[in-house]
Amino acid sequence: MPGDRTTDVLVIGAGPAGSMTAKWAAKHGAEVLMIEKRQEIGSPVRCGEGMSKEWLRDVGITPGRWVNVEVEGARIFSPNETVFEINEKHAGNEVGYVVERDGFDKQLAIDAANAGAEIELKTAATGILKENGRVVGARVKQFGETFDIRAKVTVGADGFESQVGRWAGLPTNLQLRDMDTCLQYRMTNVDSDVRYCDFYLGQVAPGGYVWVFPKGDRLANVGIGVQVSQIRTMAEAKNYLDRWIDKHPAYAKGKKIDMVGGGVSISKPLARTVMDGLMLVGDAARMIDPLTGGGIANGCIAGKICGEVAAHAVEIGDASESVLSAYEKGWRAKLEEKLYRNWLAKEKLVTLSDATFDKIIDALSGLKLEKLSVHNILKAVHAKYPEVTKEFEAFL
After folding, report:
1. I need a surface site. Which of 53, 166, 231, 292 has the fewest CB within 10 A?
2. 70-98+176-265 in CATH: which number?
3. What's the CA gap between 356 and 352, in Å, rounded?
4. Domain 5-46+102-174+267-341 in CATH: superfamily?
5. Using one digit for the tens of pLDDT, what is the confidence trace for 301-336?
6. Which residues of 283-299 are buried (b: 16+ CB within 10 A; e: fewer)?
């Protein structure tokens, strides 16, 4: 029977943000325990499995066997399937590598363990421990037994459905317009172009997009994200995706070999991610890019900062909100402006008609923009369709 435990840093959740936090806290001398409610880190996969790559070195990740394909860029398809090509540098958080996400997550957990972190699997947090308003650990359940883990610093890295923040009293609620329902098939016998990640816009995926991420020779992830406020059930998202596949011969002839689904936040980041004794990181802190739905890079970047701040708090013996706020300031300096800007863009884009998307992509098609910015995009669109840019006056 397990007994109560103590540690310097308790990380709840062993996804990329959790493992990165655990690794960097351990590297800076803290005793770290990371718990994961599932029996296998990285599984089941709930991800399109695309990621950018320029940030990997900054957080100490070396590409390994988990990389399937390195792509040149992205292709954006309008509703009438006019194409705008973007190179990898400008294509956003989902483009660069297509990976085996379970292998990636396991490698990050290995890195955390090699840095000194302890990992407990099949161990689910069931509540937060508080004393005088300060978070001092969590109550957990492992193989039917309940016990307490007391910690100087607790980190909620428990993903999109995060309960840690809510238990602690931080406002984490989401509006329906700030959530996507996602469904993805891995398909074989398809004719995807391994040089590109493809994105299809418009009413083929209301409030979201269809994606095709190549996994190798005649193998691809084909998925959809649909704004929750525009559908009633997961079955509707599946129907949208199936209809899209049926209309595209390169994929209609394919065979489905697995299917994953789940929710993704497309919201602004939380207004507050820190309180006495607690920090939230990654999807739990709403760090997913609202425009693309990608969260791996942001979670890892914030996780490094979170781990370093946690170790410092342990070292000086002070895990008050004033000390942990260095994490809040750090991740916001790196990520918040883009997250908020992309949320504003998402709010506008979900209102556009297919005809407007067609004009925007038509205006961009064939252009080689040296710098991909809102200003340069609108300048290019205005030159061909000035009436379209009027719809963006409020956004600008």
Report:
1. 166
2. 3.30.9.10
3. 6
4. FAD/NAD(P)-binding domain (3.50.50.60)
5. 999 999 999 999 999 999 999 999 999 999 999 999
6. bbbbbbbbbbbbbbbbb
